[in-house]
Amino acid sequence: MDTSPIITHKPENKGTLLEHLKALSLFMSTVVIALFGTILTAEFNNSQIEINRNKELSVIIPQLTSPDRNVRKQAIIAMSLYGVPAIFPLAAIWDDGFVDGTNQDVSNSIVVIGKSAIPELLQIYNNPWETPLKRDWSLMTLCLLKYPKTQKLIESAFKDATSTYIVLEAAAMSAGVLKYSQFTPELRELVEQFKDDENAHSVVINSISALGFIPDSMTMRELSALCFEKDSSLINETLTSLARIGSPEAMNTLSKFIDSSNNKDLKYRASFLRKRLIVAAAH
Q1: Label partner for 158 (CA 20 to 30 A): which of 56, 58, 90, 203?
Q2: How far is Cα 206 from Cα 166, in angstroms, rounded to an integer?
Q3: 158 plus 133 within the same structural domain
C-alpha cells in the first residue's frame, strides 16, 4: 500500500496579488513625488542662481563706467564670466569715449565669452541705428573671434558709400589682421583718397598698417612714396609697415629714407627699425 504523503495544492491567495499592486502603486507614487521634487528643486536652484547673478551684476555694471581705470578694467574682466547676457552691457561701454585702452578691454572680454557672442555682435554691426563706434568695435571683435563671414562684412564696408570713417577704419584693420590680400587695392585707394583729410586720419593710418600685413609690388611702391609725405604720423606708420614686411626692398626704402630725411625723430625711428631687421636676419 502506498504510504507517501498526499500533496494538496492550496488555491492561490488572492490577497497576495492585491498587496503587490498596492506596493507597486506606492512605489510609483514615491517615484513621481521624487521626480516632481527634483524638478521643483532644480527650478528653485535656477531661480536662486538667476537672483544671485542679478545681484552680482547690479554691483558690477555701475563699475563699468568708473572713473578709476583699474576698477573699470576689473569689472570688464568679471563680466566675461556671465556669458552672453554680459555682451550688450559691455558693448555699451564702446560709446563712453574712453581713450585709455578700455574699448580694447571690452573687446578682449567678449572674445573670452567665445563664439556664442557672434549673434549679438552681428546684431550690433548690422543695425544702422547703432553708433559708428559700436559698429566699429563689433566688427573688430568679430575679426578677433575669427567669424568666418568677416570677409563679406569687410567687403560690404568698403563698397558701401555710406560707411563712416570709423567703420572704414575697422574694416581696414580687420583686412590686415586677417591678411585678406584681395583687399590691397581698396586699402591703397583709401590711403590715396583720404591722406589729406584730417577727419579720416585714422582710416589712412589703419590702411597703411594693414598694407604691412599683405604686401605686394604695388603696395611697396605706395609705401615708398608715402615715406616722403609731410604728415609725420603717416610717415611713422609707413616705416612700421615697411619693417613689418622686412623684404630687401623694404630695407632699401628704409635706408633711402634715413639718408634723405631731415626729421631727426623719424630718422632715428627708421634706423632703429632697420637695425632690428638686421639683427633678426642674423639669427
Answers
A1: 90
A2: 10
A3: no
Task: Please check whether residue 70 is in contact with residue 52, taking contact to mean a CB–CB distance below 8 angstroms.
Answer: no
Per the document, the length of the chain is: 283
Domain boundary among 89, 116, 146: 146
Rounded-to-integer distance, Cα 35 and Cα 28, Å: 10
Per residue in 40-91, pLDDT tens?
Answer: 554 545 455 555 666 667 777 888 888 888 888 888 888 888 888 889 988 8
Evaluate whether residue 3 is within a structural domain. Answer: no
- For 203, the domain range is 149-213
Sequence letter at residue 116? S
pLDDT in tens, 166-188: 888 888 988 888 888 889 999 99
Instruction: Give residue 26's pLDDT.
Output: 60
One domain, residues 159 and 134 = no
